[in-house]
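so the lab meeting is tmrw and i was supposed to have these ready like two days ago... anyway. pasting both below. for each one the top line is the aa sequence and the line under it is the structure tokens. i havent really looked at them closely yet so no promises
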Amino acid sequence: MRRLASASLAAGLLAVAVPAAAFAAEPGQIDTGDTAWLLIATALVMVMLPGLALFYGGLVRRKNVLSTIMHSFFGLAIVSVVWVVVGFSIAFAPDATGTGLFGGLDYLFFNNVGLAPLGTSTIPFILFAAFQLMFAAITPALITGAFAERKRFASFVIFTVLWSVVVYSPIAHWVWASDGWLYNLGALDFAGGTVVHASSGVSALVVALLIGRRAVSAEGMEPHDIPMTVLGAGLLWFGWFGFNAGSALAANGLAANALLVTNTAAAAATITWVLASYVHRRKVSVLGAACGAVAGLVAITPASGFVTAGGALAIGLIVGGLCYSATLLRERLKIDDALDVFAVHGVGGTFGAIATGVFATVAINAYPGLIDGNPGQVVTQLIAVGATITYAVVATFVIVKLVDVILGIRISAREEELGLDLSTHGEVAYQA
């Protein structure tokens, strides 16, 4: 028997596996309040792309800031087209094979994606598709932090298209489509711990290892504009309310809880990261506060529709220290994941997905976790995380190798020394 729709982003969309014409024949009832909220939530998630651009842009050297910002900005444009053409169909169309692995072509070019609600939903089906578009857009943009300052722009474009279609959309189908295999296994992921963060985080690690370390120049590798990064983190925190609370797909109590626990986890992780940084370096790091907030937002994402404020507090306090430790390990291993995508999104998303199985409670939603006497949910979460990581690692490896054969992944040593802003874009961020 299928789980209740309110458990995840499949909320209100149990009929997603029904033939496409069905929603036109038997429409649900549109609720204007729910629709208004999802319109706002969609815009909030879109704001996360400029937020990410600023967050990443401030962390790189000044000669690469435009290039880094362009990855997020242009990435939104790329995925917006790919999602309409084929991405949404692979993610949410009725299953193509009966295996729960990927959707068919019923929604190709948004065919059959109409204005009426689907199944028991209270929002237009096309609004659900638009909301999901923003998730699809930000996920490959997260990966760009791993190869900042050294990847060819054309290779970035092809990588983004392939990764969105081959990695993101199938995993979204597994977890969020009502006929996806992980959905039917009982995996809980309210807003993207596995689909968005674990997948992009481990993919970032693969790319960083394959593309190699940056050449260290005389100017060093320090962030060129920490205020820009903090501003970006603030926009991410703001937009994340749409990311998580919007995933209730309704203006209801579940959305309100998701908003509260999102803020709570971000705040707790900020405190923990700053404290850990102070103990380690004896300085109160402003950059650490920004990174800690993002780590908390990442970790609470899969749990936001299932845990109480107390659970969110525990998740945030743990993940702040956990992700900070991951950055130290990355430094020790000399892996040039330029902007610590794996340490924050890979580690934070994986921890958050597993923690969901621990802290999920029927006080918030219908699915008990370990604290409610259901240890089996932790096992299910581990299966979901393991499957996501395995597939993302293998597929990303193949995509990077393919793109490298076609175009070459890395810029020349001369271009790297000059900086991508001038060598690729012919522009500079700041006039001397």
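ok protien two:
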Amino acid sequence: MSTELQSFIQKYDLLGCIQCGKCTGGCPVTVRTNLNVRRIVYDTLDQDMLDELAKLPEIWDCTACNTCTVRCPKGLKPAEILIGLRNILVESGEIQPTVRDALESVFLEGNPWDKPRATRSDWMQDLEVKIVEPGEKVKNLIFVCCTIAYDPRVQAIAQSFVKVLNKAGVDYGFMGNKETCCSSEVHNLGEEGLFEMEIEDNTELLNSYDAERIVAISPHCYDAFKNQYPDLKAEVIHYTQLLKELLEENKLEITGELPQKIVYHDPCFLGKQNDVFDEPRYILNHIPEAEIVEFERNRERSLCCEGGGGRMWAETESLGERLAEVRVRDAKELGVSLLAVACPFCILTLDDAIKAKGFEEEMRVVDILEIIVDLI
């Protein structure tokens, strides 16, 4: 057995796999792709197969949604094995141009969208935003997320959050252009060297602030900081946890009525990855006159939108109806007018799905912050 294979087996505890198939059986993308997680895990035990497996196009179908990990009776993390195979490909340089460009952009500009670092805070224009400097004491240090900072469709999430924070009198601060990519998706794309470098740089930056908590707007940033940054000094929370706290302490009150039917979609990186299920529902249930309903597949069974796992930048050979389209079709059958989420990736994928299905006149996908900002 080669040193490379032995290291791979030990890192992912491959010998602990009992080949029960629950990973493949539970994987949401297997219904429309050739991805067979169980088979790939088994084949990685063969040295002659390792490099060949890394070249399989279906390893890029994985969205890192964590369903396989939730269902694994041995406590293994099958998705991480697929990411490990991606790492082999990244190290060989044989990656898609879109993946290469995203990784290069993170290295050069601190974001995967090929946008200038100096324009990261342009979304703040005309807003009363509190910017804090390293060493400055602040209770809540807000981390925006690259996608929210640069994508016009989801910039409204951060803009709404600023208005909510100001309304509630929260002690907060943003980092402005000092903020850089959390690199959650760098990890998911398989660039472990860059990810480790970003962890080191971000840890130094975030720890330079005298902050009690880091409040991540995106579940992807929240998951990365909470689970993959071992040396952060501050507690890491998601914005829905902060809003629930503000509502409980009567520092924020939702007074405006919204007589609409709303369904909440659990983002994988918030729900399955971190068990944050109740806080978003707590907020929505405080909206006067709103009727809150549930998907049949909710909470840890929530259907992935396919936005995670680096899928924003990786082309796949998937077949059939996209999962986001299935999700909006389910929402239509519930008769909702608002599809509420708490993740920028979910907004982008579900918004595209609504357009693809021609449901624009029947429903909208909105972040929870976008809903409540006009009701407080």
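from a quick look at the 2nd one: The chain is about 45% helix and 10% strand. The CA atoms of residues 340 and 366 lie 5 Å apart. will dig more after coffe
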